[in-house]
Amino acid sequence: MGNNRSERMGNRKGFAGLVDRLRYHEASRQGFGFLLVLLCTLFAVPGESRIVAGLALGVIGQGWRIYAAGVIYKNKQLATTGAYSLVRHPLYLGNFLILAGFTLASGNWIVALVVFFFFLFYYPAAIRYEDAKLESIFGDDWRAWSGNIPAMFPTRAKWQANIEAQWNTRQSLLRNGELIYSIYMAGCAVWLWYRALA
Fold first, then answer.
1. What is the pLDDT of residues 9-62, one digit of tens each?
2. What is the CATH classification number for the domain harbouring 101?
3. Domain contains 108
4. Which of 90, 131, 162, 164 is deepest in the core (most CB within 10 A)?
5. Is residue 23 included in any domain, yes or no?
């Protein structure tokens, strides 16, 4: 498998190539994810029990991200235990839970369609890209670990405690940015609650 990013992304030209580059662009995926949380907030419709359930799911998703981000040292050390013993991309699972929760809390079917399209557009490509990148960096270690680990959604509950890296608060909240994400999500959750139920 080549180390060249263009090999992993494909070499299509024109509009198809532009779409490919957008799908593999991490900053745009993250930016659109933030915007979708805001979209859920702005277009929420009343419905207290749905909002409570949705925001609870969002809290679970962000908690999962905080946990997973505390043991990952991107491109330096292969994480294989803890959250990474269940899925190869636990941060993506956290993103899914957050957006699913905010979408449920919003109760707006048009927003739900936009979120659904966002996941179909970005996440299969992101998983392919990340898997290829990690395989090129970690080689046989990655292949041995990833063979039985699903990409984003757990299919088994064979938990392995963190062995090679203990959870690190600074790594999660500061170096991997989860403090900023948490503050943003909390602000959107409060605003959604106020807009929909005030």
1. 556 777 777 777 777 778 889 999 999 999 999 999 998 999 999 999 999 999
2. 1.20.120
3. yes
4. 90
5. no
